[in-house]
Every structure is written in C-alpha cells, then in structure tokens.
Amino acid sequence: MGRPTPRPSSSSSSSSSLPTLAAWTTLTVSTLLLLLTATPCEAAQDFTSNLTNWEGTWSTGTGAVVTGPGFADPMNNNKPFKYPTNTGISYSFTNDGYFEESQYRFLGNGSKPTCSKAVAIWQHGRYYFHDNGSVTMDPSIFSADGRVLVQDPCAAQTEILTYYNQPELFNGWTITIDNHHQAYMLQLIRFDGSYFPRLFLTVRPPTMLPTADLTAAT
C-alpha cells in the first residue's frame, strides 16, 4: 500500500475577553522519574513496527482542532484562543524533539445542561522516548507559556485564564494506517493502559508556534 495522503484539517475562530491570569503547575513523581532517565527522541528508537515517524501535526475526530496560530495566541491574554468548529485534540511533533498540544472540549453538567463548561488548552515543550517503550511530554522548559481557559456560563466569573504546565506519560504507542480515513493513525496508550483518542496525521511538516520560550520573547 502506498503512503496515504494526510487528512486535511479545518478550523474557524471567534473572540473572547479574558480577565485573569493565575499559576497552575502539576508534576507527578512517576513522570518526573521517567524524565530524569529519558532518551532524547532524536536518539536511536525502534520504529520497525510502525509505518512512519512522529513528525507532523496529528488531530482527533474531524480535525477541527489543530496546533499553531490557527488555534492559539498564548501571549495575548485578552484573546489567547481561536475557537474551532468542533471539539478535539491535536499534537504536533518535530524530529528534533519538540511537541505542541491543543485541546478544546466540553464538560457536561447533568443536573444543569445549560451550565456545561468549555475548556481550551495549549502548551508546548520537549518529548522523550524511553527504553521501555513509553513516551513523556515535558513542557517544563516553556512552563510559563502554557494556557488553559475555562468558560462556565453559570459561574460568578464566567471565564478564567490560567497558566498550564502539565507533563504527560504514555505507556506505549503505535502508528498504523486507518483504512477508513486513509491516513496514518497514532494510537497512544495512557499510563493506566487505556487508549487515548486516535490521532490522524493531517500535515507534514507540522504547523506549530515557535519552539522557543515565548514568554521570554515578549
């Protein structure tokens, strides 16, 4: 089978005014220990059971959520996100070890459906492969750049913008071809063994904001 054509992605934007900025940082002990023993992703890694490498932009579902300037402007605290038409998750990876993450999702409220929350997340950093087949995403080198915005129409303060610096551990991963989408599919496995939503390659090279400390540059 020939190499599939990357699936196209789409997005649309809207504006929002965001009043506050507070700090939030979480780092689990298990993730920290793995990062201390990490193998840089540009080092030797066995890709023989996979059909391609990680380089590119990968998105879930319809591909509405993407990385790069089409989703986030994290240094603009008044308008840090451009809201897509659908929820989803996107990751971008470079071959020299940088990642970027975008998420847009809703949190339902069963007792008050009109009080559902919308959450937009963006962060970037370094990713590392480990000898046991796991992967860690480490945003600590750009810890001041990440943003999370929570919109709650029923709260006293309907929009709250805070820093976001969340390392992630995946116990395993595979890259195959999804016959339905005719695209490369990255399947990540969470630390607890559950499957992360499937990610499809949408574009290569990746669409990303600069792989540098954006806060220091402003």
Automatic annotation (TrEMBL):
GO terms for biological process: 'de novo' protein folding. It is found in: Endoplasmic reticulum membrane. InterPro entries: Rot1. GO terms for molecular function: unfolded protein binding. Residues 1-43 form the signal peptide. One of its GO terms (cellular component) is endoplasmic reticulum membrane. It holds the Pfam family Rot1. It comes from the Eukaryota. Keywords: Endoplasmic reticulum, Membrane, Signal. Belongs to the ROT1 family. Required for normal levels of the cell wall 1,6-beta-glucan. Involved in a protein folding machinery chaperoning proteins acting in various physiological processes including cell wall synthesis and lysis of autophagic bodies. This is Protein ROT1. It comes from Microbotryum silenes-dioicae. The lineage of its organism: Eukaryota, Fungi, Dikarya, Basidiomycota, Pucciniomycotina.
